[in-house]
C-alpha cells in the first residue's frame, strides 16, 4: 500500500508523506530566531540534492513550523489569485505547482511522526494540528479568485494546443478544486469546510485508537505455552518481552506479523483463540478506544459533504475519476469473483475438518483454527511445511533479490550509502543510493525501515519524501521509502519471513520502483488513480517466483544451499493453495467498504451492518473480513482507500493479464522488449497518461476479468 501527500488532501490523510521538491528557503529579517533555527522549515542540506534532517527532528518545532509555513504558503496562493495579468498555464497552474514546496518538506517530517515514530506527545500535538490542517486546505480549495483563474485556464482554447502532460495537469488541477467544493455557494462552502475539519479530527482519533489497541493488547506467555512455534519466532518473542521489561516471558504483539505465525503454528488452541480475538477486535472492545461511534459519524459526514456537491453517495463521488468510474461497476467485479471464492472456502474447510476429525481433535473449525489446519492440509496435499520454506526466505537475501529484479527491468543499481552520510529517524533504518547501471546516472535514495516497534503503525507501506520533477529544467532525484513490520530477530539470528510476507515485501518495493522510475515534469502528475497504482506493485510480486530469483537468492539460512528443485516445484504447484481464504477475506472487506458508502448512513450501527451484510452474502463462518470495520484503517483513518478498497482486485485484473503477457513472451519475465514497455508505459508516466490508455499502450488490448479467474485457479487455465 503506497502513501503519498498532496497539499489539497493533507487533512484527509494523516499518515501521508511528502512528494515535494526542494527550494531555497529565505527567512525574512522580521522572523524570530526560533523560526530561523527550526529544522522543519529549513531547506534540506547535504549530498544527493539535500536530504531530510531526520536526526534533528524536534517535536517542539512542529507547531511553530506549521503556523509559519502555512501562512507563507497562503500568501503565495493569494499572490497567484490576485495576479492582475490574465490567467495562463504558467502564471496559474505552474505557479500553484511551485507554491507548496516548503510545505512538502514539513509533511515529510509529519509523516514520519505519524506513521513511524508516534508517541503520546505527538498525538497530543496532532489533535491540535488537525483542525488547522483542515482550515488551511479549505482556504486554498475555496479561494474563489483562485478557482476562477484555474477555471479560465481549463476552459481556454490554449489548452488544446498544449502537450499531453500539460493538458492532463490542467484537467487534474481543475477537478481537484471542483470536487472539493470550489463550485459551491458561500453558505455551502462554509459547511463543506466545517465537515472537513470534523472528519480530519475523526480520522486521527480512529487511527490512534487502533494504535492504542495494538500497543495495549500484548499477550505474554510462559515457556510451556510455546508448543508448535518455530524457534526463530520464539527467540523474537523472547527478545520483545525482555525489551518490554518482562524477561523470561514471550511477547505476542497485537500485529499481523506476530498474530499470523502464531495462529499458523501454535498447538495451543485456547491461546490461538485469544490472539485471534485480540487482533480482530481492535477498535471494537466497548472501551475508550472503540471506533464504532466514530465510523457512524464519519459515514454521515462523508454523505452530507458529497450531497452538497450533488452526488447520490460518497462512493459515486469517489469513483467518478477512477478506472471503475461507478460503484456499480466496482461491485460487479467483486460479486463476479465472490461465488467462486466462497465455494473454494467450503472445499478448504472440508479438507481441514477431515484432518481434525482424523486426529480426533473433537472440534469444529473456527476462525482461529483456519491457518493452523490449513498448514496441515498444505503438508498433506503438497508436502510443504511453511516453517521449512521460511528457512530459505532470509530478509537480507530477499532485499538483494529485489535489487536484482530492479537491475534487470529498470536498469537500477542499489548501493549502500556510507554510514552516517544520510540522516535516519531510527537506528534500524538503512539507506541505499540508486543509480542507472548503464550510465551511472544518479536516480535517488531508497530508505528501508523494516521492523515492528512501539509507536509504528502496523502493516507495510511505501512513501516518497521527494518525487521526480523537471519543472524547473533540472530533474530532482527521488527519495523513496519502504516500511515493514517484520518481527526483529534475537541478536545474531537471521530474520526469516513467511512466503506471504516475502510477497508483500516485493509488493511494496514495486511502489518504490514506481516512485523511482517517474519521468514526469510536474509534481501533481506523480499522484495516481487508486485502482491503478496497486497494479504496478502487485505485478512485481510475480518476480519472486521466477527461476532467476529462486536460484540466486532463496538459500537456506544455515547451509547457504539454494532451495531444492523439489521444494520449488511444490511451491509452484501450491501457488493457489488457500486461495479461498485469501480471496474471501479480502472481498468481504472490499464489499463492506462499498456498501457502507452506498447506503444511507442514517442510523447505521457499524457492528450490526457488518454482521448482517456478510450474512446476506453467505460469508463462511470459519473466517472474517481481512480488516474488520472497527479497525479498517485504509478506509477510516483517512480517505485514500475509502470506497476504494475494491481497487486491489481491479488492479489485479490488470496484474493477471500483464503476467500472462510476460509468460507468453520469448524472454519470459525478463523479456527485454516487454520489460522496456513496462517501464515506459506503466511506471515512468505515473499519472501523466490516463491509466486505461497507458495499459493499452503496453498490452495492445484491454484486460479481461477471466485472466484473474484463471490466475486464482477459479477457472481452467487451458
TrEMBL record:
Put simply, this protein is called Peptidyl-dipeptidase Dcp Metallo peptidase. MEROPS family M03A
Q: Which family does it belong to?
A: Belongs to the peptidase M3 family.
Gene Ontology CC annotations of this record: cytosol
* Keyword tags: Hydrolase, Metal-binding, Metalloprotease, Protease, Zinc
The Swiss-Prot or TrEMBL record lists the needed cofactor(s) as:
Zn(2+)
What residue stretches are annotated with the Peptidase M3A/M3B catalytic domain? 266-712
Q: Known Gene3D superfamilies for this protein?
A: Collagenase (Catalytic Domain), Endopeptidase. Chain P, domain 1, Neurolysin, domain 3
InterPro entries under this entry?
A: M3A_DCP, MetalloPept_cat_dom_sf, Neurolysin/TOP_dom2, Neurolysin/TOP_N, Pept_M3A_M3B, Pept_M3A_M3B_dom
**Lineage, uppermost ranks:** Bacteria, Pseudomonadati, Bdellovibrionota, Oligoflexia, Oligoflexales
Q: Which organism is it from?
A: Pseudobacteriovorax antillogorgiicola
Q: Name one GO molecular function term.
A: metal ion binding
**A matching Pfam family:** Peptidase_M3
